[in-house]
Amino acid sequence: MLDSMAATEENDEKEGLEEEESDILPYTRHVCRQVLSMARAECRTYTAYFGDDVNGTPGGSSGTSQAGLVAGADEPIEEYLGNCYGKPLYAFLRSKIVSCQKVETLKNLAELISREVLAPEGFDAYDPSKMKQAGANGADSDDNSLLVPVLSVVYRLLKDVQERLIYRAQTYIRDDIRGFEPSQEDLKYPLRLFEDEAPSVHPESEAYGRLMKVSTTGWYPTLGKTLFILAEILPVLETTTFQSLAYEAVSACLETIDIAAVDIARSHSGSKEAVEGSGDDDADDDWVTLNEALFTIRHLL
Length: 301
What we know:
Distance between the termini: 53 Å
Largest sheet: none
Structural class: mainly alpha
């Protein structure tokens, strides 16, 4: 009974975590928009009261901040925005980011922060040095400039998401690709190529097939897993980081294919030995070698 209660509690906790993880995207979108909206209102109020127009007349909605006139004049408002909006935003969201387990969720979260939060503010997610050039002309230029402390925190969140994604991708490569343990069905080549398509027990292959609109019938599972993880991390990681993870993933995939080829040959040899009087042993050996080679070639092409 205790085991049953423990299992029920564990399942409930797992379902709760999955539900919480599924909510992080709309939650992040809403929180970031609300915080930036309030911070922007603070910037406009500050500019309206403490800005100078081109004739030196204080105030006015068309006024600009003191940044271009007195060095360091905007530091108090920038510090205020960072402490009042930036730090609470980071504390709120980071705890949810580090609890994310799914690669898909982390990838979607990185895209959301980069495209829906930073990009509309003119913040270059790949070159943060350009953030002060946000809003090239108009009254929003100063608002965006004053928003830099808050946008910098959002950028920091993006880097945290990417770091978490890298970690989860490495874990996936280690456990799901290099550590993959095939079933008898997975090694049933070449018969698998001629069987009717059954519901896959490896959803990554199906997900990649839908994404790229290709048939994954007959694929060894680690091939689909490798292409799936590469397709997920490609859009949201820097090129050098992606190349490093891609090399690691492809190397792991090749290892599993080599091992599977040997296992397939061994299973055919075992089947042949179990059947007495099977006929021409040399011909059977040739078929075993051919099946092993064709399996490897098919997955390398």
